[in-house]
Specification:
With about 325 residues, the protein is of the alpha/beta class. The chain folds into 2 domains: about 150 residues, Rossmann fold; about 160 residues, RecF/RecN/SMC, N-terminal domain (Glutathione S-transferase Yfyf (Class Pi), Chain A, domain 2, Up-down Bundle), CATH 1.20.1050. It has 10 helices and 13 strands. Helix 3 crosses helix 5. The protein is globular, with a radius of gyration of 22 Å. The model has no long low-confidence stretch (mean pLDDT about 95).
Length: about 325
């Protein structure tokens, strides 16, 4: 599906609404009130479709001063984020280049979300590990302030070590699954030698004990996967520091397409792809390659300012003007 219209008419808002309805949160902000139109008291996003042969109706409602609510086939969900375990939606927007060129926290968050999609049973692992680190940090501060003994830190050190080792192993497994397809898709787009490399070691009780004096002084745990990074490289060059914006864009596209392939291989159901302004900075040959790859990857919504940017006939063409979305002849 191709969504066209001039800049500023709401194409990105349409994709954001679909993401909210299928994933329970916005890809643009984690502050729910920001998805509500100025002057309005609430917002509602609803979609219907199929996951394989199963009919699905999804709805997310946000109101000022109230919690976010989600429904699946008419039944209320405990949390809107539960939608992520039922429907896979992957999104590309220009501001997501932070996954490649941003700080390590952006990459950790990205790959932990991938972990949740590829291994739902391990989806809570990053949160559990983060909670253990927070408890250890609190114990460090209490001990440093003389409010408890150092022995109170040890159980949390053991918990951080156990969960940290499990989280590092899970992240390494994710990278091993993604890297072959990522390398291939990047090469198709003209970016050769792309690799994914994990930087960090599993924390051990011995390493945490050796760092105890430093951690007491700082009041924070100084090693573990909450500080690790993933290096996206091309030909041995770290694309964060030594890649052009065009190369960073291609690497992110390749990563997204690799994740889509991996989800399809594991579940038999391809994810929904939302590609915002993905064509404008690609040359005609790369647009052709991307269009062919996206067509074979399941359902995709692509936004552009002009239909001619897509070197293929879309299955459906939508024209967006302020406040309206109308189907047009493809």
């Amino acid at each position: 599906m191709l969504v066209v219209g001039p800049n500023g008419v709401g194409k990105t808002n349409l994709l954001e609404a679909i993401h909210v309805a299928t994933q329970g949160f916005s890809p643009r902000t984690r502050t729910d009130s920001q998805v509500i139109r100025f002057g309005a008291e609430g917002a509602r996003a609803a979609v219907s479709g199929r996951r394989g042969e199963v009919r699905m109706e999804l709805e997310v409602t946000v109101r000022r001063g109230e919690g976010k609510r989600a429904r699946l086939n008419g039944a209320s969900l405990r949390a809107a984020e539960q939608l992520r375990s039922m429907v896979s939606t992957l999104v590309f927007t220009p501001d997501r280049l932070g996954v490649v060129k941003g700080p390590p926290a952006a990459r950790r968050a990205y790959f932990d979300r991938v972990l949740g999609r590829l291994a739902p049973a391990r989806a809570a692992l990053p949160t559990e590990y983060g909670a253990a680190v927070a408890q250890r940090n609190a114990a460090l501060r209490r001990a440093a302030g003389g409010h408890s003994g150092r022995e109170a830190i040890e159980p949390w050190s053991e918990r951080v070590a156990a969960l940290g080792a499990e989280l590092v192993a899970a992240r390494l497994d994710v990278l091993a699954q993604l890297e072959p397809a990522c390398t291939d898709r990047a090469a198709e787009l003209g970016l050769d030698g792309v690799t994914l490399r994990y930087e960090g070691e599993p924390p051990t009780p011995e390493a945490l004990a050796a760092a105890l004096e430093r951690d007491l002084e700082r009041g924070a745990t100084s090693l573990g996967p909450h500080l690790d990074d993933v290096v996206l490289a091309a030909g041995g060059r770290d694309l964060r520091s030594f890649g052009s914006q065009g190369e960073q864009r291609l690497a992110l596209l390749a990563l997204l397409l690799a994740e889509a392939e991996t989800i399809d291989d594991r579940t038999g159901v391809p994810p929904l792809l939302l590609l915002d302004d993905v064509l404008s900075e690609l040359d005609p040959e790369r647009r052709r390659i991307l269009a062919a790859r996206v067509r074979s990857a399941g359902q995709a919504l692509v936004t552009a300012t002009d239909p001619s940017l897509l070197p293929a006939v879309p299955d459906q063409l939508l024209e967006v003007t302020p406040g309206t979305v109308l189907e047009a002849a493809a």
